[in-house]
Amino acid sequence: MPRSSPQALMLVDGYNVVGVWHDLKQVRDRDGLEEARRLLIEALTNYSAYHDFDTRLVFDSQYQDTGSKRDVITSNLAVHYTDFGQTADTFIEKTCAAFRNDLRKFHQRLIVATSDRAQQLTVVGYGAEWMSSEQLAVEVDNALIKVRTKKKPVTKNSRRFLANCLDPIAQKRLSELRYGKLN
């Protein structure tokens, strides 16, 4: 069965998010950029699946002499490394410009996550929704909490003890046995 169209296309400025999220900054400074990228990919994998977003995480490769590269992580997340000399901002702007003329815009949202003020103004000008990197962190955490609470039982069951599962007559007989009232 073909996958239904995701409710939104989300573009995430990867290094901007790594530089803004407190936890990722600490990991970047302690363990390196590769580990911070890995943790961001993991967080966005879960978030994108939860919301059914087609998420594209974009990292600059402007200072590396490599061609563009796209790694498909899941059906909801792909990681894009830009061409040599191209910034993530340029990649995001081009994608927004192309989406503006795409028929998907009538039934799918376009969201850009970055805390870059100039980028915010540009993407909103193209008709995209803007989300700060801080807001994305809050939303990722909220989605994780919602998933965890769905897995836990909401209320504790009073029938969790074996004695509570017995019919009233058996409970009465056990009580009589316990107190030595039964012959």
Written account of the structure:
The chain is of the alpha/beta class and 183 residues long. The protein has two domains: 8-151, 3-Layer(aba) Sandwich (Rossmann fold); 155-183. It has helices at 14-20, 22-31, 33-51, 88-100, 117-125, 133-151, 162-165, 168-178; strands at 8-13, 53-59, 69-72, 77-81, 109-113, 129-131. It has a six-stranded mixed β-sheet, with helices on both faces. The termini are far apart. The mean pLDDT is 85.
Largest beta sheet: strand ordering: 3-4-2-1-5-6
Provide the CATH topology of the largest domain.
Rossmann fold
What CATH first level of the largest domain would be assigned?
A: Alpha Beta
From the spread of the alpha carbons, the general shape counts as: elongated
Residue-averaged pLDDT? 85
Content-based structural category: alpha/beta
Poorly predicted runs are none
Strand content: 15-25%
Strand count, sense and barrel status of the largest sheet are: 6 strands, mixed
| Order of helix and strand elements from N to C terminus | EHHHEEEHEHEHHH
Number of helices: 8
CATH architecture of the largest domain: 3-Layer(aba) Sandwich
Number of domains: 2
Oligomerization state: single chain
The number of E-state strands comes to 6
